[in-house]
Each structure stands twice: as structure tokens, then as C-alpha cells.
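Hey, I was hoping to borrow your eyes for a little while. No rush at all, and the record is pasted right below.
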Amino acid sequence: MIRLFLWTSALLLFVGLSACRNRADNPSSLAADDSLRTLIRQRIEQKMELDRMRLKLLESGLGREILKYKPIIKKYSKRYGFDWRLIAAQIVQESGFRIKARSHKGASGLMQLMPQTAREISRELDIQYIMRNPRENITAGIYHLHKQYRLFPNADRNNRVKLALASYNAGAGRVFDAQDIARYYKRPPNVWENVRPYLAMLKKTDWQLHLQVWPSGKPRFGYFYGYNETINYVENIWSMYQTYRHIF
């Protein structure tokens, strides 16, 4: 904080001296000088706010849990090509880093994996205690997100991650169906912003649209009513991730 204060004081002094010289030479530069000082103050306030958020998080129980599991998260995030801070944000959204978290649907662990998914990953990775061991749960969860990521090879990096998160939460079929609707409306199907609103059009009451999109007259992977949860899931993780990028 002392270093930040000294840096801030020096910068404002430099701007002030420059402004004085500019005014002497060119009075019309006054507005530009004021705008520069305003911008500098805004940047300083933003940095100080981030410092406060960082301190508050790191001193909290959640912050301690993130740092506790950081090595295993970083190890497998790197292996599968993710920023570890994205995975940390996902775990916060999934379970709040509560080891014994369990959903009403039966999902368990830090990464809230369903039993069937855990059994599949157990065979693929040859690990046995995904539902009981938090480190194995993290390993399996990152691997599962990577599998979803591979389903959207034509999306750019950010959209690919968002589509993978939606698939992790709702199942890939829901995302595929929403992409079909995007194609019907001639919108690029590999952009999350395009796919997101069509998740809400997979309800039975949208049957007239379904008749236009699918020969069977209904979504290929069935009707879907959890669209608000999935949309919020992706948006919350992405927002948290942007914050964590500045904090960690």
C-alpha cells in the first residue's frame, strides 16, 4: 500500500507539473489535462478496490480453500489447457469449495459430478474415489470440462469455454439443440451470446418453433426447463473468473 501511495503521488505530481507547463504554452490544453487526471484517479481507485477485494478474499474461509487446492487445480488446469482461475471460479459456483456439497439431483463433491459421470470418468482415468476424494473430484471435473470443450471445435477460445460450461451444467444435448435453433435463425451457432437465448426455447410450449427446426417436431435431446440456471451458471462463472484474473 505504501508503494501504491508513493507511485500515485509521483504520478499525480508529474501530471500536475506537465499541466502547468502546457497551460503556459497552450491554454486550450486545460480540458485534456483535467481528463487525464480524472482517468488516473479512476485507475487508482480501481486498483485500490481490487486490493481491498484481494485482501478480503484471501482472509476469508473461501480464499483459504482456494489456496489450499490451488496446486491440484493448477496442475490439471494446465494439463487440459484451462486457466486455473476459471476452474476456481467454477468450483465456487458449483460447491463453494464445500467438500461434502450434494445437490438435490445427486451431484457430489467440489465439482458436483453426477454418479454416472463419475463412473465413466473413473474408467477413463483409472481413478476410484471421485465422489469421496476432493482431489480426485477436482481432477475428474476438469477432465469432464475438457471433454465438453472438445465438443465445440469451431468456436473461438472464449465462446468455446462458455459453451463448454453450459454443456457441463445442462448436458451437451441442450446446447446442441439451442445451436440448431440458432442455425434456423441464421445466427452463428458457436457464439454463446447467440446460443444463450435459445436455451429458453426448448420448452414444450415452443412446439410451433420446434416444428420448423426438427423433422420430429421436438428438440433432439428432449424438452428443457433449466435454462435460467444454466445461463446464470455460465455468466456467474465468467464474471467471477474476470475478477479472479486480477486478484490472483
In short: Confidence is low (pLDDT under 50) at residues 1-15.
